[in-house]
Write a structure and sequence with these properties.
- The protein has a single domain, classed as NAD(P)-binding Rossmann-like Domain (Rossmann fold).
- The two termini are 27 Å apart.
- The strands form 2 sheets. The protein has an 8-stranded mixed beta sheet, with helices on both faces. Strands 7-9 form a two-stranded parallel ribbon.
- The chain is 27% helix and 22% strand.
- It has 208 residues and is an alpha/beta fold.
- Helix 4 links the parallel strand 5 and strand 6.
- It contains 5 helices and 10 strands, in the order E-H-E-E-H-E-H-E-H-E-E-E-E-H-E.
- The chain is globular.
Length: 208
């Protein structure tokens, strides 16, 4: 299995690369500059400059792109649509590192986590931007995409337990009402999805 991880130098990207390499998969890290991952195969190229030829032959492409400043937040959508365009009509699966703010609160799908009064104001622009990319992705029936939302408490430095729970579009929590997950175990889930397939054109979620 050949996997490309786009924006591999980010926190999530590096851990997804490591998880895949540790399992013996053929992994290519796609980075803009110096490779900070453990991957031996590296493609140094800006995401927006990637072509269909660059990603030809990969079974799975993982989009780990993230933007944080007000001027770059719209790139969550534009970068994802660029990847969708160059993968359009191929068998390659596109797995997207998504956000938790767009998870629905119940089965009516009328309200989202980011609509809660308790949702931190500082994260709302990011949640909005990542929610918008999902809206646009849902319109693509020409790409084998899967959008993977993490838990509400997404822990960058959390330990790797090697366990997780896959859920659907609605926000869920454990028996104690906690929705948490480490980046490392998100990487475990992402590589499992890459290997096992399924959930094509679906948004799913991952938590402990």
């Amino acid at each position: 299995m050949k996997i490309a991880v786009v924006a591999a130098n980010g926190k999530a990207g590096q851990l997804i690369v490591k998880e895949a390499v540790d399992r013996g998969l053929d992994v290519t890290a796609v980075v803009r500059g110096e490779n900070k991952t453990v991957a031996e195969n590296v493609l140094v190229k800006d995401l927006f400059d990637l072509t269909a030829a660059d990603l030809a032959g990969f079974d799975v492409v993982v989009d780990a792109f993230g933007a944080w400043t007000p001027e770059t937040l719209p790139q969550h959508t534009t970068s994802l649509m660029h990847l969708a365009d160059i993968l359009s009509g191929t068998d390659t699966r596109l797995l997207v590192v998504g956000g938790a703010g767009s998870l629905f609160l119940d089965a009516t799908h009328t309200a989202q986590v980011q609509d809660l009064e308790s949702f931190p104001e500082v994260f709302k622009p990011l949640a909005n931007a990542m929610g918008n990319q999902l809206v646009e992705l849902r319109k693509r029936d020409d790409v084998n995409w899967t959008y993977v939302s993490p838990a509400a408490d997404f822990q960058a430095e959390g330990e790797r337990k090697g366990e997780y729970v896959l859920a659907g579009e609605e926000y869920t929590a454990d028996a104690n009402g906690v929705s948490a997950l480490s980046y490392a175990d998100y990487a475990v889930a992402m590589v499992d999805l890459a290997v096992n397939g399924g959930h094509v054109r679906e948004r799913i979620s991952v938590r402990y």
